């Protein structure tokens, strides 16, 4: 049809890039049978909800009395003005950004370190470590948060000597206790992505360096890390998205710590606002958060690509 | 996987400066193993603690050292959990299996049909569909929860089984992965041969192509299963009736009542353990399928 998407398609699917003449479409019925079920579900549960949320965010609710019938009228960007004036929402955005600036580099640094160690001749029992580090990823975020909530609690923790003296669930530290839960769950997963990428590097690339007497650290730093950069960037983008969307872990921690308020993260703010119920404002929060998530991952990719070009 | 592991002593053995002797090599190796050992403890101790805690009577939870067993009370704990409030925990486990298991299966099949058609047939609009689906891959599940809630409340279907089940079976990532895989692993000649034998297109898919695609299908199913099992925002915002909860959400509600009902604590712990054991076993057994999916993700 058009050339630009066709190029993407040939890259993705490995089609023959043969000339695209207009051929009559065969097997129309079969194609419909294959595509329509997914198509309907995708339209119903992706496209329509997103469009409806955007529409809802443009509405202003007017109520007659507290429990009166609600009437919704078009209010343009009125909700968005409220979003930008909403202190708790922006406090929650700043909170998750602070979280991400520290947690994402720590988590990916550890994942990279473990992947490099697994790929080096320094470590024995690779299979065991790979499995052991991956196990936490099988634990759902809610369960992981419950477990760590008990581990941090002053009376139930197996490390009471520590938890009775350091208030892990207090206002100062609870954000980092939550960061610990997220790190615990996802390090092994990210390690596996980077490790898979390391395995695909042909070993001949190291051999020359080895003959020249380069140490493992030097090989890792100068050869391996630059080559797995795309995998690291991929994990970084997923982690940035995950950070902005943080919900389950802090929501669970709210029952361990009074410092975790109902507007602790943007998604908790959305949930709290929807429960009021103030659907329009919640929808506007959602749209802003989705746009911010997209903008941040996109900016991150652009910056790193520009750095690539400069090198 | 083993290609890089076979030469332990090779570093610095040829033409290396004399300073890098065996002593330094031993030090690096010890340091590396030490790091791995410390982090093994970090990753496994919480699970070990949960395992130990679930064998203790509620009284001993607080009075005995956390990392070692006291009186073995595991069976009693499990029985008590299963009997608590008319066995609601069973109900939750069943719900999770339905949402994640059945939802994952149907979702995988639907995604596979679409991915297969996108890979194997040429028709107008194909690229548009693929690009829209690709955009869908980038939308996180949590970002969809509120829009889905608004949609389901307009049709009055919140707090129903379908409110969680139906949105869960849509997997754009599955379409993406099966399209790549079908293009690479289902030869056109085979489909042609099947046509000559007189089989219809749909029948060919279900008898021939789907078998060739099975490794990708397992991967898609795993990803989908985990995504549904771990989805928290959707049940949080949709469900009010306890009998509809998936198990993770049910445990969350118990956990948040701990301050009022402290005896729930041992149910939360044993329930958490029972709910993750099957997941851990499945994960470890199927690990190679994860790597397939992760590889395809990194391919972008």
UniProtKB/TrEMBL annotation, chain A:
Top-level taxon of origin: Bacteria
Record's keyword terms, sorted: Cell membrane, Membrane, Transmembrane, Transmembrane helix, Transport
Subcellular location as annotated: Cell membrane
UniProt keyword Coiled coil present: no
Ranges for domain ABC transmembrane type-1: 93-300
Protein topology in the membrane: Multi-pass membrane protein
The protein's name in its UniProt record: Sugar ABC transporter permease
Species for this entry: Agromyces salentinus
UniProtKB/TrEMBL annotation, chain B:
Keyword Cytoplasm assigned: no
Domain of life: Bacteria
Alphabetized CDD domains for the sequence: TM_PBP2 (cd06261)
UniProt entry keywords in alphabetical sequence: Cell membrane, Membrane, Transmembrane, Transmembrane helix, Transport
Listed transmembrane segments: 30-51, 97-119, 128-155, 161-184, 205-229, 264-286
Domain ABC transmembrane type-1: 93-285
Main location: membrane
Places the protein is found: Cell membrane
UniProt key word Ribonucleoprotein: no
Membrane topology category: Multi-pass membrane protein
Stretches for region Disordered: 1-23
PANTHER family: ABC TRANSPORTER PERMEASE PROTEIN MG189-RELATED (PTHR43744:SF12), ABC TRANSPORTER PERMEASE PROTEIN MG189-RELATED-RELATED (PTHR43744)
Entry similarity comment: Belongs to the binding-protein-dependent transport system permease family.
Name used for this protein in its record: Carbohydrate ABC transporter permease
Source organism of the structure: Agromyces salentinus
